[in-house]
Amino acid sequence: MGSPQVFPMLPALLYMAQFLPAVRCNNNLLCYYSPFMYRNQTFNLTMTECTTTERCMKGNGRYGNHNALSTRGCMGLRDCGQTRPLRLKGTTYNVTYLCCDYNYCNAGLCVTVKSLPFVVAITYVLLTVL
Hints:
lipoprotein, alpha+beta, GPI-anchor, CD59, cell membrane
């Protein structure tokens, strides 16, 4: 009953909070990182910060006609769009590196789907508790 009066500025603060990443002190790109993994493996993505000369990268390793490996992280501009061989455990894969230039752009569908329950839960808590 009294909660709307306790936090009268909460809607304004939540609205302004969405703009905080845009006013960070540095303008380095934030990306997801995962090591080279086989397609059937899972890994909890971690956040990494690229340097000013790097972009977010998503790598896809192929063995013949099959997608076999994947990776995410930061990569120098000159290597973006390149395909390079990678030898892993006796097998050579052709890895294509694709780059993008906005925060978390290398997330992919699996991260979005996994993050959705978290976003819904946080929104529910904020709306019911406050």
